[in-house]
Amino acid sequence: MENNMDKTVSKNNLTSRDFVPRGRKASSHRNTALFVGLRMLDCFLQSRVLAGAPAVTTLLGLFGAQQISSPGSSLSSYRQVLLAMLCTTAAKHAWFATCVTEEAWTVHGALAIGVYNITCNTLNNLLFLCTATSATRLPAGETLANPWLQAGVALFVLGIGAEWQCELQRRAFKTDARNRGKPFTQGLFALVRHPNYSGYTLWRGALGLATSGPLSGLLIAVFFAWDFCKRAIPALDEYCSKRYGAMWVEYKQNTRYRLIPGIL
């Protein structure tokens, strides 16, 4: 690929809209702190949800749903694992916001993504607490021997690990001045164009598997894959096309698939 000047693309040059304010290379400590604060708040809120707080019982009752039995004053080992996975994603997002992203967070973006994660995680944990949908309906129940929990943890580690590795690889590439004005096309990005989105989709589906079984996990993964294909990927494609020009066209020709090699 031939080199290219580090072309700046402002949001005024983009017709697509996404949560990420692409093209605005700056920093906003206040808005970044808002986003990180919301992700940390999510950890606390999910600990209360998983503990079966009175508000959770009331909410499930409004829909005529019965709640699985509470393990007592402390979280069961199963619920501790679920909470640990959620806290890992929050830590990853905080690291990304403070150490990786070059774009300045907007208030709208910080609020939208923060609240979005809280909503998704709350709904997912409510499925775990509802007797009709909980993964604990298996004979193994609410124990670490539950195969849906074990499979969910394995896929979660694979997904969050892949997403994290993508960011580390791309970050190392961008910090090298010789790569200025070039798109990163190596490592996992040589397999598909958006492997970080693939990793995100996988760990989101894995959380669904661990909380409420394979059907839930599959539906959640399909939803996020659809969302990326309809919203985030077109927006990023427009941005990269205008920033990298012919190099991006060549990359798309060499790396045909967006999320899943040979499929999507």
TrEMBL record:
Gene Ontology cellular component list: membrane
Coiled-coil region list: none
Instruction: Please name the InterPro entries in this protein's record.
Output: UstE-like
Top-rank taxon of the source lineage equals: Eukaryota
What parts of the sequence cross the membrane?
Answer: none
Give positions of region: Disordered.
1-24
Name of the protein this chain belongs to = Uncharacterized protein
Source organism of the structure:
Penicilliopsis zonata CBS 506.65
Q: What is the lineage of its organism?
A: Eukaryota, Fungi, Dikarya, Ascomycota, Pezizomycotina
